[in-house]
Amino acid sequence: MTGPIPELGVSGVVLSSLSGAGAVNVGTKALVVGIDGSDQSFPGRMILEANSWDAVHGTFVKAGGGTLTIDNAIFGRVSSPGGGEIIVGGGGALAQTSGDTRLSALVLGLGDVAAAQANVGNLLVSGGNLTLDTSLTLGSFGGIGTVTQTGGNVAVNFCGDITHCAALSIGNQGGTGTYTISGGTLAFNGPGQMVIGRNEGATVRPASNGVLDISGTGQVSVTGADLIVGNHLSTAAVQGTGTINQTGGTLTINNNANLNTHANMLISITFLIPNFRKKNGIVIINNVSDIWEIETKMFGYFTPKLSA
Predict the structure, then answer these.
(1) What percent of the chain has pLDDT over 70?
(2) How many domains does the chain divide into?
(3) pLDDT at residue 155 greater than cutoff 70
(4) Does residue 4 form part of some domain?
(5) Nearest in space to 73 (alpha carbons), one of 50, 92, 96
(6) Nearest-CA neighbor of 27 among 42, 12, 41?
(7) Fewer CB in a 10 Å sphere around the end CB: N or C, the chain?
(8) Residue 278 is part of which domain span?
């Protein structure tokens, strides 16, 4: 089916499913797949032009239930990082199980239309390498987004434009996001901002809620960027809430990163932070430029491991 897609404000193509390899040139249009709710795999190339922050850009939407496995796929521009936007909704999921996969800007759960889980999106990572070269957003503008990582490596990297990337938002502008990692690695490589519970601007929206759960052998690192837990902008009409729960694994903040914690934040590690509830695991802080607004209220006492 071809025609306008009102929810995205563009014209495009709607397919019941997508499978097989090869290349699909979406350009600056939109492609919606998966409305039949079946499980499929696509190890090919999805060409999306322009940037996700441009008014007109290529958009790929995984709709409906079911899981689309994207091992060894590339979604984005032909010759450079970034390009377009990938949105997962309908209660379905993308799955990374092996190989090397590259995506541009990924949004899991967008909008406040709860009917048939239209605003719910998931990512499942169990193996291989998944690189996002612009941004990763879990739950945006009323959406609900989750990442469940049991293995493999996920990296969110700087795309070359400091005003737009790199960005990792867990709960964004009234959305709800949860990133659960029990194995493998999550690396946020700046410059840029990793925000857990993000609200911005004077427009009144519901408060965002973001949770990062670290357990087992999961490893999370923030390098050369800001890790912001809880809303960091006092000018926001509504303040978001961020929580880090750590029962195992390792959280590392290094290379001139900034750790920014605020009143609406929970840290559930063994950390100095209000919404940081830690039972086990290791927190390592290397070469941190600033630790801002550390609250005195704590769920427990602990001294982080600091190294020069």
Answers:
(1) 73
(2) 1
(3) yes
(4) no
(5) 96
(6) 12
(7) C
(8) 13-307
